[in-house]
Amino acid sequence: MKPQATGRRETRDGRDSIVFERTFRAPITAVWAAITESDRLARWIGTWTGDPSSGSVVFRMTAEGEDVPAEVFIIRACEPPRLLAVSSGTDGDGEPFDLRLELSEDAGTATLTFSQALADPELAANVGPGWEYYLDRLVAAEADAEVAAIRFDDYYPAQGDHYRGLFA
């Protein structure tokens, strides 16, 4: 069964953003570790090196192979275990990729709300399926499921029109 596009468009901090939610049968601290600890990130997306207290880390996306260059991520906010906001790279127009990961917990179930500020329909057509893929890998990793069974080809280009339409 092909994965369904779940992302939506919202205005966050005055900017158009793509927003995703994922839930976990886990305490908020476990999900916080999965999105902030390098060895836990390695299970679903990549690793980081450096000293976060400096305000930045170097992130390498390993889920796409070894040839992907590392990027500096600027840590804009870090409020364990509820909020991580980072910026990296650019969207082609010189705007940084602004990512926001917010966590909440209710009765032992943690919810991750992930957002990226963007407005370009073509960028959304690429970014949306990509984040669906990576966030589903995160869910699989935290459920001790087979992360490698999640295939990018099931997300892109199939979900591209959904995301292009959100920002058209």
UniProtKB/TrEMBL annotation:
Transmembrane segments: none annotated. Residues 25-140 form the Activator of Hsp90 ATPase homologue 1/2-like C-terminal domain. Gene3D superfamilies: 3.30.530.20. InterPro entries: ASHA1/2-like_C, START-like_dom_sf. It comes from the Bacteria. Belongs to the AHA1 family. This is Uncharacterized protein YndB with AHSA1/START domain.
